[in-house]
Design goal:
Elements lengths: L2 H4 L4 E6 L18 H6 L4 E7 L7 H22 L4 E3 L3 H10 L2 E8 L9 H8 L2 E5 L30 H13 L2 E3 L5 H10 L5 E5 L13 H10 L2 E4 L3 H4 L13 H15 L4 E3 L18 H10 L4 H21 L1
Parallel strand pairs: 1-2, 2-4, 3-4, 4-5, 5-6, 7-8, 8-9
The protein binds zinc ion.
Length: 332
């Protein structure tokens, strides 16, 4: 491993866990991310998501969602208590884990559906360590419109016109609790409204650039400009179909690290290096040629080197920017 990569505090802002869990991430698994692979890849920290699939917007659906979120957060907490691993709730705790050579687990929730109609659940989630919540997944929920409606759940193109009144109240509460607002999966209007409303800048923890690949999950130039104006972040994700249409280059070969870094290049050129990072979506569909598991992370740094990125920029992209945003949320 390149000495620069080995000395980095690297953080991946979006990793899923299998559910139900059938293996032990402290040992070798078939997952893209387990602790041995994080060590091998020189990655200190991962944001591990309690992912809640969108279901019906009724009491039974919301009841199931909170049961699943609670159980998944308990599992993420268990991961954080393993030997050589820390469950980290602040940027300083992540830095301390790095100093000790430990792995850092940061808990998060993917899909605001987990809170149902009950704002008081946000404080319970924060007490379980949660540092960001993705407002929606695919499909509208009671908080906001999603970039990808679920016709099978009865969604029309638009439900609320961006954020609902409950969604706005949730953002105010998340600001108070120091929970970051993840706008990945959100409809464009939801994202723009959230960026304007939130006191702490918003983050897309796993998304790509629409100018390079016209996918509804990607952020367009106006959204990038809003991230710049508000101090927000886009964490480029290793999802082939978000990087290039159909996950393939024009010559038919599968996308790889060069395509991934093309998206990072684009964000840097458009809005600056302070607004970009990495969120692989490993174990949630992420993985491209050359970056198939978290153990391949040094390959990304090698591509940064090839393109002449300086050491400070590489450190900012690989985690510095995300930790700064965590800190801003902690002070809010
Ligand atoms: Zn996702």
């Amino acid at each position: 491993m390149d000495a620069l990569h080995a000395g980095l505090l690297a953080l991946d802002s979006h990793i899923d866990i299998p559910w139900p869990v059938t293996d032990d991430p402290t040992g070798i698994t078939s997952r893209c991310v387990d602790f041995p692979k994080m060590r091998a890849g020189g990655v200190t920290a991962g944001c591990f998501a309690a992912y809640i699939p969108q279901g019906a917007l009724d009491d039974a659906g919301h009841g199931d969602a909170v049961v699943r979120a609670t159980a998944m957060l308990a599992e993420i907490g268990r991961m954080g208590r393993a030997e050589g691993v820390r469950l980290c709730e602040t940027a300083d705790e992540v830095r301390a884990a790095f100093g000790e050579g430990a792995r850092a687990v940061v808990a998060c929730i993917e899909n605001g559906y987990a809170m149902g109609r009950d704002l008081s659940r946000l404080e319970r989630f924060r007490r379980a360590g949660v540092r960001y919540i993705t407002l929606t997944h695919n499909g509208h929920n009671l908080l906001a419109d999603s970039a990808i409606p679920r016709r099978d759940l009865g969604d029309s193109v638009i439900r609320h016109g961006g954020l609902s009144r409950l969604g706005r109240a949730a953002i105010v509460e998340m600001n108070i609790l120091g929970i970051l607002i993840d706008v990945s999966h959100a409809h464009r209007d939801t994202m723009l409204q959230a960026a304007k409303l939130s006191k702490t800048p918003v983050v897309a923890t796993h998304a790509c650039v629409r100018a390079l690949c016209d996918h509804p999950r990607n952020l367009d130039d106006e959204q990038l400009r809003v991230l710049k104006d508000t101090g927000g972040l886009i964490q480029i994700t290793a999802m082939g179909s978000f990087l290039r249409r159909g996950g393939k280059r024009l010559d038919g070969t599968p996308v790889g690290i060069a395509d991934f870094v093309d998206h990072i290049d684009y964000v840097i050129e458009k809005i600056g290096v302070a607004h970009v990072g990495i969120g692989s979506d490993f174990d949630g569909g992420g993985g491209i040629e050359g970056f198939t598991t978290i153990a391949d992370s040094p390959n990304v740094t090698a591509e940064f080197r090839r393109r002449g990125y300086d050491d400070d920029s590489i450190a900012a992209i690989w985690g510095g920017n995300f930790l700064t945003l965590m800190e801003r949320a902690e002070r809010a």
